Amino acid sequence: MASSGYRNSIQKGFVRVVDRPLSATSNFRSNTFKSKLHPSTGIRRSSPGSLGGAGASRDDAGVPGRVRVAVRLRPRNAEELVADADFADCVELQPELKRLKLRKNNWDSDTYEFDEVLSEFASQKRVYEVVAKPVVESVLDGYNGTVMAYGQTGTGKTYTLGRLGEEDTSARGIMVRSMEDILADLSPETDSVSVSYLQLYMETIQDLLDPANDNISIVEDPKTGDVSVPGATLVEIRNQKSFMELLRIGEAHRIAANTKLNTESSRSHAILMVQVKRSVMGREAAFSGENDNHSHLDKPFKPYVRKGKLVVVDLAGSERVHKSGSEGHMLEEAKSINLSLSALGKCINALAENSAHVPVRDSKLTRLLKDSFGGTARTSLIVTIGPSPRHRGETASTILFGQRAMKVENMLKIKEEFDYKGLSRRLEIQLDTLIAENERRQKAFEDEVERVTLEAENRISEVETRYADALEKERLKYQMDYMESIKKLEEKLVTNQKTRVSNGYIGDTCSGEATSMSVSEEVSKVEKLLQNEIHLRKKAEEEVNNLRSQLVQFTESEGGGDSDILKLRKILEDEAHQKKKLEEEIMILRNQLLQLTIEANQMRRCSGDAITGLDSLMSQVMHSQLKDAGNGQKVPIGTLFEQVGLQKILSLLESEDANVRIHAVKVVANLAAEEANQERIVEAGGLTSLLTLLRSFEDETVRRVAAGAIANLAMNEANQELIMVQGGISLLSMTATDAEDPQTLRMVAGALANLCGNDKLQKKLRTEGGIKALLGMVRCGHPDVLSQVARGIANFAKCESRASTQGTKTGRSFLIEDGALPWIVQNANSEAPPIRRHIELALCHLAQHEVNAKDMISGGALWELVRISRDCSREDIRSLARRTLTSSPTFRAEMRRLRIEC
Ligand code: ADP
Ligand code: MG
C-alpha cells in the first residue's frame, strides 16, 4: 500500500510532505555526493584496516546514499492490445512530476512518487542514464554499486538489464552499456575489470560461465564482513566484444540449466558481478627517492588501488512471492524458489522501518546483496510494471516494494587499499635496474683500473728500456773517449820521441835502450849536484847556529848588573796584586752583608720570630750554591731540609726580592737534582712554583734554572703526570716557543723529552702543543738541543708503537700529523751520533705501525730505513729496521716496486 500520509497530503492539497525528503533532481546523482567522490587532490589514502570492509574505510562515516528507485512501464504487448482493448491501463504516469497513479477504479487512484518515472516510451539509453550510469560512475570511483530489477515476469526486467542489442544497438540493455562506460574509462596499463556471472535458483548458486560448477558458496570475511564468491569463474574483460561473448555464453547456459532443472528463467535470479580495479595516483614524491638524478627510474607511481564492484541483479518474477504453489510446484520447491525473494522483501521492510534486526542471513540472495541494501554500495532499483489492469494486484505490490526500497539508506564508502603488490613489483624493478647499473659501473671501473695498470706497466718498461739504452750509449761514449785518449797519448808519445831525436839528445835515434841509458846517466848527474847542494846548506846552517849561541852568551853577561832592580820590581808587583785581591774580597763580603740584612728583614716579615736564626743558615746555603766548591761552605742537602724546612725554601721562590728568588730557585734546582728529594719537593708544591717561575720571569737565569729543575723532576715518572696535571706541558711548550738561550732550550727540550717517554701523556702532549714545541726548538740549531729533541721524538714514537701494539692507538702517528717527519728524515743521517741514534730508533718505531707506512714512503723515510737496515753501526737497531721492513706489506710492496732488496 502506498504511504497513506503522502497520498493524503496530495489529495488534501497540502504542501507536499513526505516521510523523507526526496531528491528533486532528474539525475540520481546529488551534487554533494559527486563532489565528495572527487576530492580536489584525487588522492585518497586508506587507513591500514581499510581493505574494503564496511566501517573500515578511511571515510569512516561514509557518505549517505539512499537507495534510488525508478519505475518503468512496459508498453502493451500484442496480447494485451487485443485482450485489454476495451480497458484503460491500470496506471497513469506523470513522468515530469515523477509520479505514478495506480487506478483503484474508474474514479479513484493512488499516487506514488519515485526517483524516476519511465514511461513506455522511455528509450533504453535514457533508462541506462538515469538508473545505471550514476552507479557505474561510482564504481569507477571505487565504490560498490548495485543495479537491480524487480517486477512481475514479463514486465521487462531482462529487457531492461540484459538485452545485447546486437541487431539494433539502441536496444542495448544496462549490462552492455555499463561495460562500455567502464572500458572507456579504464587505462589498460594500470586498471583491470573482471566479470563473474551467476544464477541463484532454489538457494543454490550456479556458475553461468562454468555450469558444472553448480554449488558455489558465499564466503564472508570475518574481519570486514565483506561477501564474496571465490568459487565463481572470474574472467578478465579486455574489450566489449569479449564481454558480449561472455554474456551470450551466460545466457545460453542459463537457458540450458533451466531446461535441465525443468524450470524457466523467470524463476531464477541472474547476478552479474563486475569487479573494477584501478590504480590511483599516489604521492609520487614519497616513492621517487631523494635523488633527482634517478628520476628516470621513478616514473609516476600509483601505490593505491580502488576496487569497486558492480552487481547487476535480474531477479526472478515477483509474482512468485504471492503465487507460490499455485501453479502446481512441489511445496518444497516453491518455498525455495521464493525464499530469497521474500527474504529480500523482509530485509527491505526492516531497513525501511529502521528495525533493529535485518534478517540478512535468511537467504543466499540477501547475503549476496548485504552491501547493496543497508550497506556501503550505491544502489539503484528499477521496478518494472505492465499496463494490464488484469495484473493490477501484482503491479500494486511491485509499486509498494519500490516505495519501501526508497526508504533504505546506505552509507557509501570507498573501497581503496594500499597497493603493496604494485609497490613491491615496482621496487623490484627499480632494484633490478639499480643492480644492473651498479654492475655496469663496477665493470667499467675494473676495466679502467686494468687499463691504467697496463698503461703504467707499459710506461715503466718503456722508461726502463730507455734508461738501459741511455746507459749503454753513455758507456760506449766513455769507452770511445777512453780509446781516443789512449790514441792521442800514443801519438803524443811518438811526437815527443821524434822531437827528442831531432834535438840531438840521443846519438842513436833508433835505439830505445840507448835512450833510457842516457836518461839514467842524466839523473845520476843531477842527484850528485843536489847532494852537493844539501851538504853546503847544512854547513851554512851550523855556522848560523853557532853565531846565535855566541850572541846569547854575550847578551847575558851584559845584563848581570840590573838583577837587583828586577827583583824589587817583582816584589812590588806582587804586593799590588795582593792588595787588589783583598779589595775584591772586601767588596764581595760587603755585598753579602747587605744581602743578608735584606733577607733577614724579609724573613722576619714573612715568618716572624719563629724563623729567627734560619736566615743565616739559608744565606749560607745559598752562598754555598753560588760559590766555587773550594771557597764556599757546603751545607749537606739532607741537613738543609731538616734545618730550614722545604716549605720555607719554596716560599722564597716567591720572594719579592729578585736576588732571593734567584738564589732560591738555584737551591731548589740543586735539591731537585737528587732523586731522593724530588718527591718531597713536588709534594710541597715546588713544581707549581717552578712552573710559575718559568712563565712569570723575564730573567733568563731564573728561567734556565727553573727549566733545569723541572727537567730534573720530569725524570721521575710519578712527577711527569703531576707536571701534566699542573699545566706543565703547555707552560714548557710556551717557554720552548719564546726562549732564546740555548741552555734554557736544552732544559726545556730535556723536560719535554722526558715527558714524551710516558705512555699516559701521549695525547696531552699532542693536544697541548708539546710535539710542535719540541719540533720548534730545532730552530736554535744547538747540537745539545737537537739531541734532546731527537730523544723526545724517539721516546714518543716508542710509546706510540707500544700503544699501537696494544690496540689503544689506531690512527697515524701524532708525530707525522704534527709534521715531524721531514725533520726526522733530514736528520736521520746526522753527524752527531746521539741525534742519529735517537732518530734511527724513532724511524724504526714509526715503521712498526702499518698505518704510518704510506706517509713514511712519501716522506722519503723508506730510504732511511733501508740505509739503517744496512749501515747502522748498532746491530740491534740494524736488525730492528730489517725486521720492521720485512714485516710491513706496504714497505715490502714499495721495495718490490723500487727493486730494493733488504
Ligand atoms: P521479464 O524479464 O521481466 O520476465 P522480459 O524482459 O522477458 O520480461 O520481457 C517480456 C517481453 O516484453 C519481451 O518480449 C520483451 O521484448 C518485451 N518488453 C519488455 N519491456 C519492453 C519495452 N520497454 N518495450 C518493448 N518491449 C518490451
Ligand atoms: Mg526475465
Description:
This is Kinesin-like protein. It is found in: Cytoplasm, Cytoskeleton. Pfam families: Arm, Kinesin. By secondary structure, the protein is of the alpha+beta class. Helices cover about 55% and strands about 10% of the residues. Strands 2, 6, 7, 8, 9, 12, 13, 14, 15 and 17 form a 10-stranded mixed β-sheet that branches. Bound molecules: adenosine-5'-diphosphate and magnesium ion.
Mean pLDDT: 80
Hetero compounds: adenosine-5'-diphosphate, magnesium ion
Q: Identify the overall geometry.
A: elongated
Largest sheet geometry: 10 strands, mixed
Distance between the termini: 117 Å
**How many helices?**
35
* Secondary structure: helix percent: 55-70%
- Main structural class: alpha+beta
Subcellular location: Cytoplasm, Cytoskeleton
Organism: Liquidambar formosana (Formosan gum)
Family: Belongs to the TRAFAC class myosin-kinesin ATPase superfamily. Kinesin family. Ungrouped subfamily.
GO molecular function: ATP binding; microtubule binding; plus-end-directed microtubule motor activity
In a nutshell, what does this entry contain?
With 902 residues, this protein is an alpha+beta fold. Helices cover 57% and strands 10% of the residues.
Chart the SSEs and their pairings.
Layout: H1 4-11, H2 31-37, E1 63-66, E2 68-73, H3 78-83, E3 91-94, E4 99-103, E5 109-113, E6 116-118, H4 124-140, E7 145-151, H5 157-162, H6 174-185, E8 192-201, E9 204-207, E10 219-220, E11 227-228, E12 235-236, H7 240-260, E13 269-280, H8 284-287, E14 304-314, H9 319-323, H10 331-352, H11 364-368, E15 378-385, H12 392-405, E16 409-412, E17 416-418, H13 420-503, H14 512-558, H15 563-607, H16 614-626, H17 637-644, H18 646-652, H19 658-672, H20 675-683, H21 686-696, H22 700-713, H23 717-725, H24 728-738, H25 742-756, H26 762-767, H27 770-776, H28 783-806, H29 814-817, H30 821-827, H31 833-847, H32 853-858, H33 861-871, H34 875-887, H35 889-897
Helix pairs in contact: 4-6, 16-19, 17-18, 19-22, 21-22, 21-24, 22-25, 24-25, 24-27, 25-28, 28-31, 31-33, 31-34, 33-34
GO biological process, one term: spindle elongation
Region (Disordered): 33-60
Pfam family, one: Arm
